[in-house]
Structure formats: C-alpha cells, structure tokens
Amino acid sequence: MFATKIRHDSGKYPFPEQKDVNYRITDTGYGKNSVKIMHVVRNGPVHSIREFEVDTHLKLYSDKDYIVGDNSDIIATDSQKNTVYLLAKKYGVNSPEEFGMMLCQHFLNKYRHVSEVHIHVEEYPWKRIGDDCATSVAGGYNNSSKHNHAFILTPVARRYCDVIQTRQSNKPTVISGVKDLRVIKTTKSSFVNFVNDEYRSLPDQYDRIFSTIVESRWEYSQTDNVNFCAAFDKVKEIILKNFAGDYAIGISSPSVQHTLYLTEKEILDNLPQVTAIKMQMPNCHYFNFDTSKFQSVTPGDNNEVFIPTDKPFGIIYAQLDRKNMNKL
Q1: What CATH class is the domain 1-170?
Q2: CATH homologous superfamily of 178-328
Q3: Confidence of residue 52 (pLDDT cuts 50, 70, 90)
Q4: How far apart are alpha carbons 313 and 294 in whole angstroms?
Q5: 138-146, long-range: CB within 8 Å, 24+ apart, which pairs?
C-alpha cells in the first residue's frame, strides 16, 4: 500500500555502446536531499513562517548517462535545489503535502523525459510565541496573546510527507506522517499472560511505566479538497487520546499492540479519505532500581526511582487497511 522505490527494466532506449548482455540496470535516480527552506509571509505587522527540509528525487526513462556517459538528459541536482526555492517564491508555501504535489507536477510537466518524481518534505515545528506555550507575563506576554513576528521551536513531534507520481498515473500518491512523538505515562499499563517457557525471564507486569516514541504514516485515497493540516492535527490528537485517555482517569493498556490497533482504527474511522495507516511504537524501558540490598539506607520497596534504558528495546508495529479500498 505504501510507496516504495519502483524497480523498472532499463533498455527502453538501447544503445549500441552497451556491450554487456549479462547485466541490466534495474533502478536509477537523481536528487537533492535536505534542501532547507524558510518561507515568510508578511501581512502587515503580522508575519507567518514555515520551514521545510525537502528531498527531490527524479527517475528518467533513459539510462544513457550511466551506460555511455551521455549527460544530455540529466537535470542537475543543483537545478532541482533551485526549483524548490523558485517555486516557493512564485507560488508560496502551504502544507508539506501541497508543496510536494506542486513540485511533482512541475518536474513532470517541465521535463518530458522524467518518468517518476518522489518528493519528501519534513516540517520544522515553529509556533508563534504565545500560541499554546507558556510565556511570562513579566516578560510582556500572557497565554491569551500571540506575538506578531516572533516564534519558538516546539519539537514535540516532526511532521513529514512523501509525494510520489509517475507519468503514467493520473494522481499522486500522498503519504503523510508524524515521527519523534515521545510520550510516557506512569500507570495504567500492564503486560501479562504472554508465552511462558524456558526462555522467559520477564515476570507478569500488572502496573508499569509505558513510554514510546510514536512514528505513524498514512496514505490518502484521494487528495482533492483535503485539509492536510487539519488531518495531521486529528491524527496526532487521536494518538495522544488512545495513549493517555481521560485527563483524570487515564486509559488502561494491556499491551502496546492493543493501544496501537485502537489508535489506527479510530484514525480510519475519523478520516474517510485515508485508505491505510501504519504505526510503530518502540518500548522505551524504565526499569525499577533494586533497593533490596540497601535497606539500611532506604528501607521498604522502591516504586519511585527507575533506570531509563534505550538499548535494547522492543519494537511493535502494524498496518491497518480498509477492506473496501483497492490497493494502489
């Protein structure tokens, strides 16, 4: 369901210089990675910003540059970089998905020998100072005001998207995603009744710390009139809701797997334009520090001090598709 590198046969335009009959090129591409761009909109005293990091990858019909050293079809990666800046200047920058679709259309329309375009966009999470962030009243701000032209980076999570379009397709494949969303809760998580054999050392855990770093990506079945920013916000809201639950009561999690499934199902229930979603949730372990040998220092059991560990870690992932959707 999700876009992967397309492997294709070369030799559509064979050259007499190609002497090798034992090999064939099955995949090629050119691109510029990590093109960093800041776009500023000045509406009187109120300014808005968006900062992206963009990858542009192109595939050509011909392999003559590889086979015979003919560069006449190559669109230099530096030219691809310049295209990102010039289209942002000419048309502005909205959501990562819309910018990616615009770049795809440009490269396919401008260069007839391009067979496929793959655009990857990551957004830097700038927020206006005073917009959902605590600011000091003594410093001249309060929570109900928003600064006209000053922003703060709030790296709670990273938003990204991939837009892929081939010349043969009549619409792009748009995959949106969120990553580096790290969360933790100190109760309402358990893990019991798992396989008990000679290799098991982990006891049943009826109440444990649950921490993970969520990465999720979802594919749209159609992109017309989609509010990509609102959809992204909804996905993030559902992820946090299924992890944390009610503010006062919380929500029980019998396993990471179950929490992940409930999250994916609710996202598909709420976003009909999404055809499939994939999530991964690693276990960020916090192990109880054993104080049993130090009773003269701190008598009793320990349920307050834990040791964070990053490796090794468990990894849980799943993809949920709609049954009535055709595979792309």
Answers
A1: alpha beta
A2: Urate Oxidase; (3.10.270.10)
A3: very high
A4: 28
A5: none
Distance CA(83)–CA(57), nearest Å, equals: 12
CB atoms within 10 A of CB 159: 25
- HEC secondary structure over the chain: CCCCCCCCCCCCCCCCCCCCCCCCCCCCCEEEEEEEEEEEEEECCEEEEEEEEEEEEEEECCCHHHHHCCCCCCCCHHHHHHHHHHHHHHHCCCCHHHHHHHHHHHHHHHCCCEEEEEEEEEEECEEECCCCCCCCCCCCCCCCCCCCCCEEECCCCEEEEEEEEECCCCCCEEEEEEEEEEEEECCCECECCCCCCCCCCCCCECCCCEEEEEEEEEEECCCCCCCHHHHHHHHHHHHHHHHHCECCCECCECCHHHHHHHHHHHHHHHCCCEEEEEEEEECCCEEECCCHHHCCCCCCCCCCCEEECCCCCCEEEEEEECCCCCCC
| Domain limits, the chain | 1-170, 178-328
Residues contacting 233, CB < 8 A, separation 6+: none
pLDDT tens digits, 271-299: 999 999 999 999 999 999 999 999 999 99
Closest CA to 208 of 310, 295, 306: 306
**Is residue 32 flagged as an active site residue?**
yes
Catalytic residue among 47, 147, 185, 285: 285
Token pair listed for 272: 């009909």
Cβ–Cβ < 8 Å for 75, 99: no
Cis peptide before 312 (omega within 30 of 0): yes
Options 28, 77, 135, 223, the catalytic residue: 77
120 is catalytic: no
pTM over 0.85: yes
